[in-house]
Write a structure and sequence with these properties.
The protein has one helix at about 120-130, and strands spanning about 40-45, 65, 75-80, 85-90, 105, 110-115. By secondary structure, the chain is mainly β. The strands form two sheets. A three-stranded antiparallel beta sheet has the order 1-3-4, with no helix packed on it. The protein has a three-stranded antiparallel beta sheet with strand order 2-6-5, with no helix packed on it. A hairpin with a 5-residue loop joins strand 5 (about 105) and strand 6 (about 110-115). It is globular, with a radius of gyration of 14 Å.
């Protein structure tokens, strides 16, 4: 589940301490930016970073603390707040990590992937995760 949706118990109310300056969404009427057609709710997370029920995105710098899955030919499937689902083929940093086996281990054995500010995958996911407050 998108870490900016609902109440993420691991970092406080709605993830706002994890991504300061970014909106959190607790009810459907909060989804004005991005619109429900652009707001992802569910996606697969890589088995190498699976640690809770949320897929956290670092929205303030290009980084994937929780790594979206890269299965089935470099594709991950997303469901959006309006009810539609769509596959997305990774084209940047996530495309170069087949099955996330090359994720750099950090403390606790959980991995992460860094990206650049121009990384197509990070930009695509950031635009669909939350908007600035």
């Amino acid at each position: 589940m998108n870490g900016m949706m609902g109440i993420y118990w691991g970092v406080g109310s709605g993830g706002d301490s994890y991504n300061p300056g970014w909106r959190t969404y607790k009810k459907m009427s909060d989804l004005t930016c991005p619109q429900p057609t652009m707001s992802w709710i569910f996606a697969d997370e890589s088995m190498y970073t699976l640690n809770d029920g949320y897929l956290q995105m670092n929205l303030n710098q290009p980084d994937f603390p929780d790594v979206p899955a890269n299965y089935h030919g470099g594709v991950n499937c997303f469901t959006f707040a309006d009810g539609h689902g769509e596959p997305h083929k990774w084209k940047g940093a996530l495309a170069r990590v087949p099955y996330a086996k090359d994720i750099t281990a950090t403390s606790g054995g959980i991995g992460r992937i860094g990206a650049s500010a121009q990384d197509r995958d990070w930009l695509w996911l950031k635009d669909r995760t939350a908007c600035r407050q």
